[in-house]
Amino acid sequence: MSLDLAPLLPGTIVLSSLLPGVFIFLVREENHLLRTVLNLFGAVLKLVLVGVMIWGVYLGQVFETRVQIAPGLELVLHADALSVLFVTLSTVLWLVTTVYAIGYLEHSPNRSRFFGFFSLCVSATVGVALAGNLLTFVIFYEILTLATYPLVAHRGTPEATRGAKIYLAYTLSGGLLLLVGAVWLRTLTGPVDFVAGGVLRGMPADMHRELVAIFALLLAGLGVKAALVPLHGWLPQSMVAPAPVSSLLHAVAVVKAGAFGILRVVFDVYGVEFSSELGLLAVLAALASFTIIYGSLMALTQDGLKKRLAYSTVSQVSYIALGAALLGPIATVGGMVHLVHQGIMKITLFFCAGNYAETLGVHNVSQMDGVGRRMPLTTLAFSVGALGMIGIPPIAGFVSKWYLGLGGVEAQQYWVLLVLGASTLLNAGYFLPILYRAWFRPLPNEWPHEHHFGTRFETMGALLWPPVITAAFCLVAGLFAAAPFSPLEWAQLIARREYGL
Q1: pLDDT tens, position by position, 414-429
Q2: Residues 101/24, Cβ–Cβ less than 8 Å
Q3: Which of 423, 232, 230, 421 lies closest to 310 in space, CA to CA?
Q4: Distance between CA 274 and CA 200 in Å, rounded?
Q5: Hey, which of 40, 195, 203, 414 has its CA 20 to 30 A from 360?
Q6: Which sequence spans correspond to the domains of the chain?
Q7: How far, in Å, CA of 290 to CA of 223, rounded?
Q8: Tens digit of each residue's pLDDT (9 = 90 or more) over 312-332
Q9: What are phi and psi of 304, to 5 degrees?
Q10: How far apart are CA 286 and CA 283, in angstroms?
Q11: Cα angle for residues 95, 56, 264 (degrees, 5° grid)
Q12: pTM score of the predicted model
């Protein structure tokens, strides 16, 4: 790519979903073909552009878009190794989720509204990923909140409206705390760019108390979307949303934006060593560890399949924060690679949950007896995702837990092994009974609400193949973790740059 085009690439990647989204709002409801073409065109174009960016960043090329929005205030989109990790996850899973959503919502009302906000949501997520300074991050972080609210409320039922209001109350409150922290930090330091190793290194000791308070505000603001306990209450309530939205919330957009923001603050604002010096990492490690165990315990008690998966997300996303909180490159690799691994595993599980609901009317774990014989490919994909969450090799989740455990040993924080061990047992406790029911219990006399789609497969192709593909991703990411450009190899690249190795 020529140097003249490099400054345009980050902005173009954001626009590649934003502009189709705007046009989708204008598409008539019955014009299914045009809406599908716009959706897939934006998703494929974004994937191609991100592929160009991956290669350039790997070779050390600089991609940066700067727009002055007011004197002294710049909107900065910048591609570095960490942003590329998140933007690649978002882009690949958006394409798969788009195909799934087209099939899932084929006969639903208000599809143009849904897919319009769907595209805006992904545009905001990519903006969060590519944000080059704290101001840009906060702007896209808030756009993400507003774009996702109509998706949660899409069905328009009292339950959906209530869940959306709870989601909005939590996330707007978190956004306000994030904004206060960002403004306070700017008054102390000026513009806050994201720089490997942190921009606050060497700040005088008399400012340390203020910097601790600012970190608390930033962590609280980000912790809402990252579902850190006790800021997680919105997540189970938002499960009233359609399955594509749940997939987006848990694997691609909202929850990951919070976790990604924690990584940015720890590594590229404060710097991991300065964060440790201020005692901030110990607090983050404690919060993450408590959330990991609490989320798993709550998942054990849920009969609703999506709610069980929601509490699993509360637990699993905190592995990312735990990796950031342990001083050392190995734990950093574990946390950052889990950003990707958790995404592909969790989206697989939510796709499968949507298939059970749409095809059989199955919404609860107690209704899943024999479902593996009725929907074998869907249940095989679910099994891969569930076993990966437990940490069974060679699925991707094992790689994350292995590096987090090694990172705990490297940092001489041996208690991490106890947290990971307890989490693994609890994961097994709430996933293995589902697999037992699905594969080994007899079929019921009838399903709650069986829907035959008239195909030779167990369900509609647009619903079936996305979880099969993402389950394959889970296996490939684990089996070929050491391959060039794998999520693990890219996480190692990030860790080397953050620690100056």
Answers
A1: 999 999 999 999 999 9
A2: no
A3: 232
A4: 8
A5: 40
A6: 1-278, 291-501
A7: 13
A8: 999 999 999 999 999 889 999
A9: -60, 125
A10: 5
A11: 70
A12: 0.93
- What CA–CA distances, in Å, run from 308 to 93, 175, 239, 311, 430? 22, 27, 10, 5, 8
51-87 pLDDT, tens digit per residue, is: 999 888 888 888 888 888 877 788 999 998 899 999 9
- The DSSP code sequence of 456-478 is SSSS-HHHHHHHHHHHHHHHHHH
Per-residue tokens: 9: 């690439």
Q: Is the dihedral of CA 43, 477, 80, 347 positive or negative?
A: positive
Residue 346 makes CB contacts below 8 A (sequence gap 6+) with 247, 250, 251, 309, 312, 313, 316, 385, 389
CA end-to-end distance (rounded Å), the chain: 28
Strand duo 63-70 + 73-79: pairing: antiparallel
Q: Looking at beta carbons, which pairs linking 472-476 to residues 24 or more positions away fall under 8 Å?
A: 473/344, 473/348, 473/396, 474/341, 474/344, 474/345, 474/348, 474/384, 474/385, 474/388, 474/395, 474/396, 474/397, 475/384, 475/394, 475/395, 475/396
- 265-280 b/e (C-beta count within 10 Å ≥ 16 → b): bbbbbbbbebbbebeb
Task: Tell me the chain's radius of gyration from C-alpha atoms.
Answer: 21
328 in Cβ contact with 221 (< 8 Å):
no
